[in-house]
Design a protein that fits this description.
By secondary structure, the chain is of the alpha+beta class. Among the domains are: 5-27 and 40-154, 2-Layer Sandwich (Uridine Diphospho-n-acetylenolpyruvylglucosamine Reductase, domain 2), CATH 3.30.43; 283-398, FAD-linked oxidase, cap domain/gating helix (Vanillyl-alcohol Oxidase, Chain A, domain 3, 3-Layer(aba) Sandwich); 507-541, Vanillyl-alcohol Oxidase, Chain A, domain 4. The chain has 21 helices and 18 strands. The structure holds flavin-adenine dinucleotide.
């Protein structure tokens, strides 16, 4: 039975993950850790969950909730409340490891139907009780925290079915609490076989509603688009009534209202149903390629050329910068091998060279044509082809690589990821400045990749590893993180490309959008949620 903070904080498969020897070697080399350092475990969070904060829910109201959902679908015990207190942001994990949970929800409710959601929202609205919609809990922006207590509305237990697949229109209507694997599995096995096309690294433990609410991007977004390019219509229960947009391929009746809820992060209402595009599932046609380039600039040039030359786009399209490429080689024990020596001799030098991974999906003729065009463009930019294998290998660990974060934190390693969208002409300057900032912290490993690519620009994704300062873990992280965001903003990168804003990035929203735009968002919020009960507490920089 799960009883500890560690049971809650662990990402992914709840079994403990062992760090591979390649990664251990990198930590030893970069941080100077000794064997005995590696034996010491730091802030593991193995203590039993115990809350000091009592549930503040009025007994009369609790009774009303029980009448709606039944006593099996409401929880007020410590463990359930702590589970619903945090997402998976680095600072959340630190707080759980320390057993710090100052503002848990008063109750967790698992509604069984949309009607029940309507009734719950109504009671909360009349009684000024905060509601935080809760999906897979994979938020990395403090999106599911409950600073005002109230209700955590967990949609994953019951609101998790496919409602309809329409093969003529190539659409699916799905309830918001369905997890990625169940959704994709359903589509793969429906009729002639379909795919949702949305595969974030958190795919296994995130839901359709969370993808929409946090405006995410999957690893095949270059081909299929971000989630806002996939959603055609949706249904939302707001404190001010139900919004149910109609499904059209496109329309011109004012602005697209459904887009208001893409990125709404629970602040406007509870998304209950989503209708989105689906794609033919034909994995046997997928073509893979991998390349190594002499430097980051030539890899970017090849990538941009592919996106702008009209030859068709790949679905997975990814470049690792020199440091990320070197770490990838080191952890796979490639350095020093004959192949490594050969690559260095012919000009693909460690410290400069960059890896590119490509996968193209679709019909056989499409994948043949696109992969052959990409190979030609890569060759023109002096890439060395590594064949299909490295990309296939990368795809195998596309989700599980994130499982390493928890065991790394056990070794007192500060590790987090940040991401931004940038126009092509500003990509190298932004990359240079953010890396410079990351490197200003002693012994920091700063790995960067480009993973969501557009005709006009791309996403830069930063992963850093650095030794923790024991005893001051939270403060030193908060300060470092603040500096990264400020450097991104000062260099004209977007505040977020796909993680969303939550409470973590809220303080920078006015600077990002400008006062009038933020006022406009606030006006929409005030209309739909006049009492400010939906995910309150500065989410998206909104009041109260
Ligand atoms: C290891 C890891 C890797 C990740 N990789 C990616 C990635 O590749 N791409 C990416 O886009 N993101 C990624 N993320 C971030 C996160 O997984 C996404 O933001 C995801 O879309 C959140 O989905 P969820 O179901 O877990 O939502 P939750 O975390 O439960 O909620 C996220 C936000 O949405 C709101 N919300 C949830 N459901 C609803 C609903 N039905 N109605 C209204 N509001 C709702 C919540 O209130 C909260 O504000 C990653 C996170 C982790 C931990």
């Amino acid at each position: 039975m799960n009883t500890t903070y560690r049971d809650i904080l662990k990402w992914g498969d709840k079994r403990e993950t062992q760090i591979d020897q390649g990664t251990i070697n990198v930590i030893k080399e970069k941080f100077g850790y000794s064997e005995s350092d590696l034996k010491q475990k730091h802030l593991e969070g193995n203590q039993e969950v115990k809350l000091d904060v009592k549930s503040d829910l009025d007994q009369e109201i609790l009774k009303q909730f029980i009448e709606i959902v039944g006593s099996d679908n409401i929880q007020t015990d410590d463990y359930s409340r702590v589970v619903h207190s945090y997402g998976k942001y680095y600072a959340d994990l630190l707080k759980l490891r320390m057993g710090v949970v100052p503002t848990p929800p008063d109750a967790v409710i698992y509604p069984r139907s949309e009607d029940e959601i309507i009734n719950i929202v109504d009671i909360c609205n009349k009684n000024n009780i905060a509601i935080t919609p809760f999906g897979g809990q994979s938020s990395v922006t403090r999106g599911v925290e409950t600073p005002k207590g109230g209700i955590s509305l967990d949609l994953t237990k019951h609101i998790n079915k496919v409602i309809e697949v329409n093969e003529i229109n190539s659409t699916v209507t799905v309830q918001s609490g369905m997890f990625g694997p169940a959704f994709e599995d359903y589509l793969n096995n429906f009729g002639t076989g379909y795919s949702c096309g949305h595969f974030p690294q958190s795919f296994e433990y995130s839901t359709v509603g969370g993808w929409v609410a946090a405006k995410g991007a999957g690893q095949a977004s270059t081909g299929y688009g971000k989630i806002e390019h996939m959603v055609l219509s949706l249904k939302v229960v707001t404190p001010n009534g139900i919004i149910n947009t109609k499904t059209y391929p496109a329309s011109a009746q004012g602005w697209d209202l459904h887009q208001t809820f893409l990125g709404s992060e629970g602040t406007l209402g509870v998304i209950t149903e989503v209708t989105m595009k689906i794609h033919k599932y034909q994995p046997n046609n997928t073509q893979h390629a991998s390349f190594i380039f002499k430097n980051f600039e030539s890899a970017i040039e090849a990538m941009r050329t592919v996106m702008q030359s009209g030859v068709g786009v790949p679905h997975l399209f990814r470049i690792s910068d020199p440091e990320e490429s070197e770490i990838a080689f080191k952890t796979k024990n490639f350095n020093g091998t004959l192949a490594d020596k050969f690559l260095n001799t012919i000009g693909y030098k460690s410290g400069d060279r960059c890896l590119m991974f490509v996968a193209v999906e679709g019909s056989r003729s499409y994948t043949n044509q696109v992969i052959s065009s990409i190979k030609k463009i890569a060759k023109k930019n002096k890439a060395f082809s590594l064949g299909a294998k490295p990309t296939k290998k990368w795809l195998k660990q596309r989700y599980s690589s994130a499982y390493l974060r928890d065991p790394l934190m056990d070794l007192a390693v500060m590790t987090d990821t940040l991401e931004t969208a940038v126009m092509w002409d500003n990509l190298i300057p932004l990359w240079t400045e953010v890396r410079k900032y990351l490197k200003s912290r002693e012994k920091t490993v700063a790995m960067v990749h480009i993973s969501h690519v557009y005709e006009n620009g791309a996403n830069l994704y930063f992963t850093f590893l650095s030794p923790m300062k024991k005893g001051d873990e939270l403060n030193e992280y908060t300060e470092f993180h603040k500096g990264i965001i400020e450097t991104i903003q000062a260099n004209n990168g977007s505040l977020s490309h796909h993680h969303g804003v939550g409470r973590t990035l809220a303080p920078w929203m006015e600077n990002e959008l400008g006062k009038e735009s933020l006022n406009l968002m606030q006006a929409v919020k005030d209309h739909l949620d006049p009492n400010g009960i939906m995910n309150p507490g500065n989410t998206l920089g909104l009041k109260p």
